[in-house]
Amino acid sequence: MRRVAVIGVGHSRFGDRQDVNVKELAFESVKPALEDAGLTPKDIPYVTVGSIGVWYEEPLPAVAIAEYCGLTGAGLVRVEAACATGSAAVYSAYTAIASGAVDLALVVGVEKMREVDTSLAVELIGRAGSYLWEFEYFGMTFPSYYALYATAYMNRYGATEEDLALVAVKNHKYAALNPLAHLQKEISVEDVLSSYMISWPLKLYDCSPITDGSAALVLASEEKVRELRVDTPVWIAGVGYSSGSSTLSQRSDFLGLDAAVKASQMAYRIAGVRPDQIDSANVHDCFTIAELLAYEDLGFCRRGEGVKMIRDGETEIGGRIPVNVDGGLKAKGHPIGATGVSMIVEQTKQLREEVKPSARQAPMKNYIALTHNVGGTGHYCYVTVLKR
After folding, report:
1. Rg of the Cα trace of the chain?
2. Residues with a known catalytic role
3. Could you list the pLDDT tens digit for every one of the 388 residues in the chain?
4. What is the pTM of this model?
5. Helix (H) or strand (E) holding 240
6. SS3 for 105?
7. Residue 289: phi, psi to the nearest 5?
8. CB within 10 Å: which end of the chain, N or C, has fewer?
9. What does each C-alpha distance from 333 to 287, 328, 337, 339, 349 come to in angstroms?
């Protein structure tokens, strides 16, 4: 297996993007990613597109996006892994290069979720688990799924609604500094606690927004990195992956996501790193409880200690391991197909020490970063370790 590096990144503005169609939205990230890599569309032999695509007008988005972005003629594949779609698309391109099939690949993650109304979007997302068993029979939606985890965690470890709110407050603080984020405003614990109840104990400000957006990466083999004389390649040091049951009734408990534990252990082993060496991380905070679970699933702390990490500010810049300092899914936004790609864009910039404004730049000691991208409620999981 050959070494693979990120050599170009691009990112659109996240939000309610009624000003563009899906092809134009993808172009907003593809163009800067190619420019960052010093390449043209004709240089790209292989493209992976991550998109769920049930919300917008193009049923076959990969070919339409490729044509609009000048990539016609490249090999195309569309990837889907629920909310982990972006990371799965990255992994598809990564393996194509690592295997020697190609030397360059472009990854595009894109979603236009706001083409449908909120109730339909919630229904479509709710179908991502076991549709007939959980959604059709019991009416479960994703806030309800994660509410089960939140109530179990609170009951076992003594966490409170205020503790969950601290996650939202932190992530909104950093989103307010991120010009590409969907929700660019700071909030208070009281704002979270007084917001509309969605599925107890999760309130509106405990939930990530329905978002449009795109992100793109250019990946290259080590040989191509040398040929192009890339100044600051960011290496994909290890990718771990796993999956969980489609029905939550088959889970052993609701205190963590087993798929995330297995994926992270695999990624650490391949990369040859330990959790305490990570300088910066993006974790899948689709709901505030999901970020607390991620701290523990990823080995940043022991079971039940995630709540202490958020209380003590350990995941802020200046803390032990800054997490989601771009705003995370909670405030930067969660355009499903783009999310995993966006995480790697962010951590590539962190490792290059290019984050603007500097108030969002995590201190680099080991030059190791991590992304954690969960599909569904642990139905899929990809953990990616990056090194500079």
Report:
1. 19
2. 83, 334
3. 899 999 999 999 999 999 999 999 999 999 999 999 999 999 999 999 999 999 998 999 999 999 999 999 999 999 999 999 999 999 999 999 999 999 999 999 999 999 999 888 888 887 776 666 666 656 678 898 899 999 999 999 999 999 999 999 999 999 999 999 999 999 999 999 999 999 999 999 999 999 999 999 999 999 999 999 999 999 999 999 999 888 777 788 889 999 999 999 999 999 999 999 999 999 999 999 999 999 999 999 999 999 999 999 999 999 999 999 999 999 999 999 999 999 999 999 999 999 999 999 999 999 999 999 999 888 899 999 999 9
4. 0.96
5. strand 234-243
6. strand
7. -60, -30
8. N
9. 11, 7, 12, 8, 18
All domains in the chain, ordered by first residue = 4-116+210-228 (3.40.47.10)
DSSP, residue by residue, 167-210: HHHHHHHHHTT-TT-S------HHHHHTSPEEETTEEGGGBPPP
Number of neighbouring beta carbons within 10 Å of residue 127: 15
Q: Tell me, what amino acid is at 352?
A: R
**CB neighbours of 2 closer than 8 A, spacing ≥ 6?**
97, 98, 99, 100, 221, 222, 223
For residue 194, with 0-12 CB atoms within 10 Å meaning exposed, 13-18 middle and 19 or more buried, which class applies? exposed
Residue 364: count other Cβ atoms within 10 Å of its Cβ: 15
Q: Can you tell me the distance from the alpha carbon of 127 to that of 132, in angstroms, rounded to the nearest whole number?
A: 8
Identity of the amino acid at 107: V
**Helices first, then strands: H and E counts in the chain:** 14, 11
Alpha helices in 38-184 (DSSP H): 61-68, 85-98, 118-126, 137-138, 142-157, 161-175
Task: Name the helix (H) or strand (E) containing 261.
Answer: helix 258-271
d(CA 304, CA 256): 10
Q: Which amino acid is at 365?
A: K
Distance between CA atoms of 319 and 310, rounded to whole angstroms? 10
Nearest 5°: CA angle at 280, between 278 and 285?
110
Structure tokens given for 19 = 């000003």
DSSP-assigned states of every residue in 332-366: T---HHHHHHHHHHHHHHHHHT--SSGGGPPP-SS
With vertex at residue 14, the alpha carbon angle to CA 108 and CA 20, rounded to the nearest 5 degrees, is 75
